[in-house]
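Field reference: sequence -> structure
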Amino acid sequence: MGNVLKILSEAFSEGIIVVNEDQHIVASNRSANSMFGYRSTELIDQPLSILIPHKYQNSHKNHVNSFSNKSDHQQLGRGRDFYGVKKNGGVFPVEAGLNPFEMFGNKYVIAQIVDINIRKTQEKQIQDLNLKLEDKVAERTIELNKTVLELKSEIHKRKQAEKQIKESLKRERELNELKTKFLSLVSHEFKTPLSVILTSASLIGKYKTVDVQAKREKHINTIINKVKYLNTILIDFLSIEKLESKKAFYNIKKFSLDKLITEVIYDTNMILKDGQKINHPLDLDGVTINSDERILELILFNILNNAIKYSPKNTTIDISTSFKNDKLIITIKDQGIGIPKEEQKFIFNRYFRAANALLDQGTGIGLNIAKNHLENLGGTIYFESQESIGSSFTVEIPLTTNFVKS
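Structure field:
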């Protein structure tokens, strides 16, 4: 029996160990003897435990017993640690394929044993390398994330700088357009008033006697009106330039509402048409507000000037005031030409002039300036209008303005 198994086992390159039911070795091949450090017949009749480290003997013995009564194949050493021990006491990892079989009425288990020490060492090296690689990847990931954040920050800064440059270029273009439009308006809007002023001044020089004083005063009033008109245009353009260049600073202080409205009405009395009359609010003595008096005067003058300009002779312009939720509400209502319904949405656009107002002098910037200033002061402006019936413009502004927006 032993010789038969010996001859068969030598055909294998793996280590071959054959044990009987008592787990004694009945055959071993040259590879197994060399693997465990024994001479050719030294393992015969030795218990299997001689090849198993002491601490694994019970578990390994149970495995062999369990397969002695089976006819299937089992691979040991895969998925868990399985060890052998050399004659010199050296322990090394192995894989063993167990195959139970019967011969001449006796049961045996043949074990094909492979020394996997080199493979285990390589696996350990690969595992260590993987751990180092993971650490390196984690380290590089942190560095990469840091670099990405720095790049994002740099990109954000560049975008901000680009945005600021674009805004500056846009403002510069708009200011250049403003200057171009201003020159165009100077040639158009200033030409007629200056001609009238020159003519009136020349005629005044001819009226030297007392009996023509009425004519002299008429021409003086004409000169005053035209000068006021030109001054208004200049103030409007200066306001636009300040608003566009973000240099519109406000002088917030307490002032008399009655004094403000009285001065606005006085300034516009000189341009009233024949029969036109301004009704203004009474009982405003002692009423004060905290805002920019000069800007509010400019806004009200623009609105009242439009009411006079676009209203016919012998009509009334009403100025009313009220207070609501700590806000001053001023409404200027006229009986003028009104604003066409389809054009009302454009009325606060800069340089816009309604189709029915193109023949009258004007720049189309007054209401745009008023709206921008009011919004900067926390206020608002809105209107109602019906063509051929009249318009009503309402200004709302806080009674106390505690902030300045430029």
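Note: The chain is about 45% helix and 20% strand.
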